Description:
The complex is a heterodimer. Chain A is α+β, with helices and mostly antiparallel strands. Helix content of chain A is 39%, strand content 24%. Chain A has helices at 12-23, 26-32, 87-100, 109-115, 126-134, 136-143, and strands at residues 37-44, 50-59, 62-68, 81-86, 119-122. In chain A, strands 3-2-1-4-5 form a five-stranded mixed β-sheet. In chain A, a hairpin with a 5-residue loop joins β1 (37-44) and β2 (50-59). The model of chain A has no long low-confidence stretch (mean pLDDT 94). Chain B is an all-alpha fold. Chain B has a domain at 111-369: Orthogonal Bundle (Ribonucleotide Reductase, subunit A), CATH 1.10.620. Chain B contains 15 helices and no strands. In chain B, α9 packs antiparallel against α12 (268-298). The A-B interface holds A 31-34, 36, 59-61, 105, 108, 110-111, 114-115, 125-127, 129-131, 133-137, 140 and B 65-67, 121, 124-125, 128-131, 136, 255, 259-260, 262-263, 265-268, 270-271, 275-276, 278-279, 281-283, 285-286, 289-290, 355, 358, 362, 365-366, 369. The structure holds fe (ii) ion (2 copies).
Amino acid sequence: MTSAVGAQPLTKAWFDDMAAAMQADPDRYRRLGMNDARVGFRVDGEDGSPEAAILLGFRDFECTSVEEVDAQRLDGPDCDYYLAADRRDWEDLIAHVVEKGRADPSHTLNTLVLADDRVHLRGATQLGMDTFYRLNASLQAFFEECAG
Amino acid sequence: MVSTFSQIREVPAFAALPTKAEFVEQLNADEYARRVRNGDFDLGWFNAAPDGTRWGQWGVRAQPSRRGLTLMDIDKASGLFPEAFAPPLAAPRGGGTEREPTTVNWGINERWEVWAENLVPLYEEACSRQWSATEDIEWSRMEELPPDMERALCQFNTFLTMAEYLATDVLASWIPKFNTYFHEIKLFLASQAMDEARHTEVFRKRIFANGGGLGQAINFGSQLAQQSSLADNILFGSWAFTSYGVHVVFEGAILSMFRFGEFLGKTDVDKQIFRMVMQDEARHVAYGTLHLKYMIEHAPDVERRLEELHYLASISEMFFTSFFFLHPTTLEACAILAGEGVDGMDKGLEVYKALYRKMREEYLMRIKQAGFDRTDRCMYPEELPI
Lengths: 148, 386
Ligand SMILES: [Fe+2]
Ligand SMILES: [Fe+2]
């Protein structure tokens, strides 16, 4: 599959491209407001075990760090919350966003996470996970950068 | 100086005022006015040493962070973090006062009564993440909904419109009770009042934007409004109770309903509305949760306070279950929306029940992590009896 930001989806390079896209549109993210959060993305294999984990650092109006990490770190104090899904479900979601240019009403992150069947919201604390709700529009906009 | 206010306060209400000419004569005779006429200025404030007596500090040069100049930046530069007890004054924290400052009998003067570790950054977040119900929702993308969906959504939004009045009315009335020394709580609640105003606005706008109209107000609103107006009301009798009842119980549940609203939204407009209100609501819940934690860690006589809080929590949870989650308008509107029509209500009801379980689970987790475990005492039933 491909994504408009170029790199192979769900790799560090792909998230780096998304961070660069975010940086290239400062007015949009400033309008959404400050966004301080440490957000993980976990990619699981077919047997449900983690295959890859990325930890993003958002600061002010930018994504300031993209790290490949051991999946266990996402359950610790370095991460406010993370989104976990099978590789195939992530790829379907990304393909959908790329095709439509944005997530349609049945594919927004909150909708998927509330259904809790394909994409799961996880984190060490409830208040950390509540950050997903508190800064949701910024994360949704960031994720939709994959559409280019 | 002519102390007009004290003169007025000493006379009975509506007693005759001086004529304007008499008042000007009094001003003319004033000692300070006479000195200024002779070029003799006071300058006490100007010449005062920056020792916190008549003048606060001098030479503070706060550096803006990348976001701009935040309250965190000026606190760091000035070192003016709040102490445990506030002086009985209407003065900004760290400033000087007149020689004989007027004392003020604020209701709330201790840090543990108001503080939360996230209070200052949350206020900055609130300011930064303000949005406009008029401009930031893409109203031009509104799409027609099937009539029963539109009717259910209008009912859901009618309830929410009403819930937003309550949050503003109850919380804003506390602002004058906090000592100005803890300006952060006043600022945060003022920002929350703005958030709630915008929520009322956006739900009302949505109701009238797509061929529907206002639905039925439910007694929940009148019950709470009545309760808050009673002098001896239990729910809002102290800030600890009010913040717990509103920020943690009420807004915790409303946050779940906003998430649900986003989930149920069939159009970009409805998605956007619920996404934006959800963000604001999570901020209110975040203050309430960490205020609860701070209170538990710092309040004197905390065991007794927690017992009282358990009592209040039980009342709030019972109230919310009976008057909100089991109310026909809430339950049925949500079931229609989740089931995509009246015909799908049975399926929709299962989704509603799952949302309720999620709300309960998140609420219990939040308060437990704040140090208030209600796992065995929570009055929210594990399952709605439907
Ligand atoms: Fe609200
Ligand atoms: Fe609120």
